Amino acid sequence: MRRKSRFEVVALVLLAFALPVKPDEKLAYSVAKNDHSIESVCVGVNAGIHPHPDPALCYVFITCTFEQSTAYQCAEGFVFDRAMLRCIPGDRDQCPERTEPDWDQFCSGVSYAFYAHPAVCWEFVFCSLGNANRYSCPMGEIWSQREGACLPGNWDTCELLELELSCQNRSDGVLPHPTDCTSFLECNNGQTTISECSRGEVFDQTLERCVAGNTETCVRADNVCRDRADGTVLAHPNECDLFMLCQGGQEVANPCPSGEILNVQAQFCVPGNADTCRFHPVETMCQNASVGAIYPHPNSCTQFVSCITSQGVTTFCPAGQIFHAPSGSCRVGNTNTCELIVDVCEGQADFSVLEHPSICSLFIWCQGGTVTVQPCPNGEILRPDAQFCVPGNQLTCEFDPIDRMCVGQIDSVSFPHPTECAQFVACFRGETLVQTCPKGSVYHASTRSCVPGNDDTCERFDSICSGRLDGIIPHPTTCNAFVYCTSGQAVFEQCGPGTIFKQGLSGCVVGNTETCTEAKTICTDHADHTLVGHPSECNLIVVCMMQQPTLRSCPAGEIFNSTTLLCIPGDLNTCQVHPVETMCRNREYGAVYPHPSDCTQFVRCAGEQPNVQVCPAGHVLHHSSMSCRPGDTNTCEVMENVCQNQTDGVILQHPSLCGHFVWCEGGAITINPCPVGEILRPDVQFCVPGNLTTCEYAPIDRMCLGQADHIRFPHPTECSSFVACQGQNGVVQSCPAGSVYSAKARSCMPGNEATCERFENICFGRPESMIAHPNTCTAYIHCSSNLAVYQQCAPGTVFEPSLGGCVVGNTATCTRNDGMCVGQSDGSILTHPNECDLYILCVSQQAAPLRCPPGEILNEQAQICAPGNVTSCQFNPVETMCHNKVNNAIYPHPNDCSRFVQCSDGQGIVKDCPPGEILHGSTRTCRPGNTATCQFLDGVCQGRPDGWVIEHQSLCGHFIQCQQGVASVHSCPGGEILRPDAQLCVPGNPTSCVFDPVEQMCMGRPDGRVYPHPNNCTQYLRCQNSQPTLETCRPGTIFRATTQSCVAGNGDTCTFLDYSCAGRPDGVIPHPEGCALFLLCTSGTTAAFRCPEGEILHPEFLVCAAGNADDCSLAPVTTEPPIISVCEGRPDGNYTHPLLCYMFIHCTNGATEIRSCPKDQIFVGAIRGCAPGNQESCIPL
User: Fold this and answer.
1) Could you give the 3-state DSSP secondary structure of residue 382?
2) What is d(CA 212, CA 222) in angstroms, rounded to the nearest whole number?
3) Of 15-29, 42-56, 534-548, 929-943, the least confident
4) Sign of the CA dihedral 702, 703, 707, 710?
5) How far apart are CA 1104 and CA 1113, in angstroms?
6) Domain locations in the chain as residue ranges
7) 678 — phi, psi (to 5°)?
8) CA quadruple 395, 400, 401, 406: dihedral positive or negative?
């Protein structure tokens, strides 16, 4: 058979795991037609992966499939790793460089020749008829130009391995072959002979011989036969038609017969394909096999194939057996794991039954150490712990439930219980009867009887008496039995009921049969005939005689009641008393028994019918007298001597009935009931409305149902409160602070409401005065004629002894808070020092504490009371804020001053104030305010002109506009924010409050929209096609955003000057921006102008004159200042003369004409004409 490449067997594994990092992507690599360098890579290789022989192509790899080579390349960014045989991330530019000859040109004039590659020793070029053909030598060989062939050589050193010279100057012996581990060199007289190992062996240099090993990886099969028996057959590491036979702990490779491969599980060679290592199917298994040959089945160890002529006949092994190929026979084995069962019966007693490892309907029978397989009866499976077959499902191996175990079974057949070894199932008429072995014994299935054993561990005591003398010994596991040994045989004896075995006495004594404790002291200090309950058996009575216990049994069907000291009908297994319905069965007529669960009742038997009779309320059955007496109906204890030394008329609490009380009279006890629907309030010795079953006091809203008006009851829990009935409604009224309610007197009396102590003598011997209350600072006591009158301070005030009155203060710490309203305006609302349902109203700088409506606390920020918890001072959540509130009631939102809650049908509806406004508590309306600080902005418009725009302090996308001193909030257009200095909204981000840059200000804006320049007040932007156009105001003016026009203004300070002429007479005034500018006042309006070039405003005559605008210096003055042309750019009309009030300037089409008023008239700018006036003083008449 042809020797395989060392990559052959693992081909599929390598191809699956060693391909490029992306296994689902193969990138083909194109090889030139004349490049034969990869062809020799796969010579002799059926499957494998190799790097490209050219190191410069470090990203190309070769796959071999049955000696055919295919080139692939790694994905971009990957290179092929020669060690890992897979693509890994790498840079192709880092591949080794080589100088590649131009082989086409080199071979162009050559008809036939071989040439070595100048840089790669394992490559060569074959020039044929001018064509260049490249080749690579096989792995482990390099090109020899001298020999014109590929010879063994080292690819790293490019040195030829001259094997014929390997033995020169060496002693005789063997050497490893340098490139082939399945060969070796023999040296004899300096001559070299190449020898091959047997198939399946590799040369071991240490042992200097061939040993079994993997011929692909060259790894020897080391120590695989260590500790294995001779003749053991193991699989060869890589040749499936070979096997390793263990002899003396050594591995020896042996071939299977021709056409066969090793079946590892069967340890036998069977027909198969040595190339694919697959077994032949049964149909072709016997072709070319000798007649009568027997092979293991290829897929099942419970079958084998017999060859009859060329046909294979499949035969099954008997149940529970598997085919043993070496012997050609079936043997006992595990049909799941195909393992033989060989030594399981060694050391086992004859007739031992063992579990079959894979088939529950079979069992292993041991006899003389031999293993045989036996079947259970039909419909039964082995119960291993019982070594017995029991009814069960042979497919699922589940035992039948008890109720089906006897289906189809004959009478008297018994089976072990499925789970309890001390029980067994007896069959009778197809029904199952569960029966229990005596304590201290277990059921033995083989003998179908109970035998001595531990019923907890199921251990049998077969040899407990072996080697013992005759006598009594304790039972190993139970104390209420003992073992009597006679002639080595064990006889089991049971102690009497309620007794346990005591070894020292060799007999049984009274004791706890569960804990095995002797009841030594159960009768200590007890008088004769005292009855005591048995410590573990409830149907037994311990009768004490001379302080020693004796046992007496209750009548059949009765158990001892330790409380009543009587036997009463009950279950001796559960120790539970029988219910009343069955208590009188089989009992004498007239028999009386305590009620099984209620000591206030007893049962009298009338035949088998029970007659339950009830003791009077508050009474229990007295057992010895069988009569009813006052007692605790919960503990069943009789009440005795509770009224001794008590005064007549004293009321005591009944221990178990709150609707009754104990009345003492002459030391005798009488049980009396409270009025219907009432229970005793012990602390006040008074009956009050309540639930007789739960002993809970009636809630206040139900205390007065059915009661007459003006009836009073003490409060259920507060001694300082009482409930007054009015119209069958309970009205809780509180005693003044520092007083408590007296139920008997039905009035409030001085006292400590915390301890309920009454201060009956606090004013005794005192003069008439106001004194502090001993326990509270919110009240005081007025002593008058030795009587105490309790007075309450006003809410939120504390008593000040030095003043003899109450003042505002902290009612928790009793600290005064003086001067709270000093400096506060009238109507100011302040928080109370400690009570959140109070607030301080300042009037004339005096503090007046007032209380919020019930269920409300002060919202300081909104200065209004809102629903809240008076105890925790937390506002109610929105969900419950409007419970019990009128519709349309408005409250501030508990967390957001820009929102409010409006009530509708008990539900709170959250509403938002308009943007920039917050809720004003007292008016219940939204007003302009800072939504961040919750401060109102009411006064910001005082003294401001109408239309004045002010920046909103928390919303830059909104602004405040003033009208008649009132502020209102307005929103900027979308995508704009207020420019405060310009009093105009401009493009910007309302969230970040950042202005848009100039180049973006007109994006999406309509044509003609005008905005002030963000940095220069003398310029503005006009939008056209979403692009800004920069325009400049004329000199002396700046842009006013509100009017969208240029008006008189200082371009340096950006200060508007259009109101500079208000209240001034017509004329010229200097412009603050420069001396080349001036302001012209006309009828109170202001206009800015610039002097002609080379002129400045004359500071004295206020006319333009020659001068230097840079330093404001005048040129020499002429005799009469010129009149400038003020009409340039002005509409036609009359205008004020800059110097003379009786003259005026008339403008016509920009031309200037100086005109004079008539005598005794002056020019008045308001009417644009002349009117009577003094031409010297310029005062109108």
Assistant:
1) strand
2) 8
3) 15-29
4) negative
5) 12
6) 27-161, 162-255, 376-462, 641-697, 1117-1180
7) -125, 155
8) positive
User: How does 435-458 read in b/e, with b if 16+ C-beta sit within 10 Å?
Assistant: eebebbbbbbbeeeebbbbbbeee
- Identical fold between 376-462 and 1117-1180: yes
CA 822 to CA 102: how far, in whole Å? 109
15 phi, psi to nearest 5 deg:
-65, -30
Q: Are 62 and 88 in contact (CB under 8 A)?
A: no
CA–CA gap between residue 57 and residue 49 (Å, rounded): 15
User: Cα–Cα distance between 1105 and 1095 in angstroms, integer?
Assistant: 5
- Long-range contacts of residues 434-437, Cβ cutoff 8 Å, at least 24 apart: 434/402
Q: In the chain, what is the greatest distance between 2 CA atoms, to the nearest angstrom? A: 173
Residue pLDDT, tens place only, 583-597: 888 888 888 888 888
Residue spans of beta strands (DSSP E) within 464-562: 471-474, 481-486, 489-494, 499-502, 507-512, 517-518, 530-533, 540-545, 548-553, 558-561
Task: Enumerate the β-bridge partners of residue 807.
Answer: 798
Q: Which residue has the tokens 């990957």?
A: 78
Answer yes or no: are the C-beta atoms of 1017 and 1025 closer than 8 Å. no
3-state SS string over 873-905?
A: CCECCHHHHCCCCCCCCEEECCCCCCEEEEEEC
pLDDT digits (tens, 9 = 90+) for 496-520: 899 999 887 778 999 999 899 999 8
| Nearest alpha carbon to residue 176 among 199, 220, 219, 209 | 209
Contact 684, 714 (CB under 8 A): yes
Residue 308, judged by CB atoms within 10 A of its CB (0-12, 13-18, 19+), counts as: exposed
- Measure the CA–CA gap between 388 and 381, rounded to whole angstroms: 8
Q: How many CB atoms lie within 10 A of CB 419?
A: 8
Give the separation between CA 1093 and CA 1108, rounded to whole angstroms: 10
Is residue 277 a contact partner of residue 248, using CB atoms and an 8 Å limit?
Answer: no
- For 872, the enclosing helix (H) or strand (E) is none
Residue 321 token pair: 């057996």
CA atoms of 539 and 809, how far apart (whole Å):
75
Tokens 């920039």 sit on residue = 916
What's the predicted TM-score (pTM) here? 0.37
Nearest CA among 1103, 1104, 1086, 1085 for reference residue 1095 = 1104
Give every CB contact of residue 471 below 8 A, 6+ residues apart in sequence. Answer: 484, 485
CATH for the stretch 376-462: 2.170.140
Cα–Cα distance measured from residue 610 to residue 595, given in angstroms and rounded to the nearest whole number = 10
Question: DSSP 3-state assignment of 999?
Answer: helix
CATH 2.170.140 fits 1117-1180, yes or no: yes
Render pLDDT for 887-901 as a digit per residue (tens, 0 to 9): 999 999 988 999 999
Distance CA 85, CA 855 (A): 83
CA pair distance 477, 63, nearest whole angstrom: 76
User: Residues 737, 741, 745, 751: is their CA dihedral positive or negative?
Assistant: negative
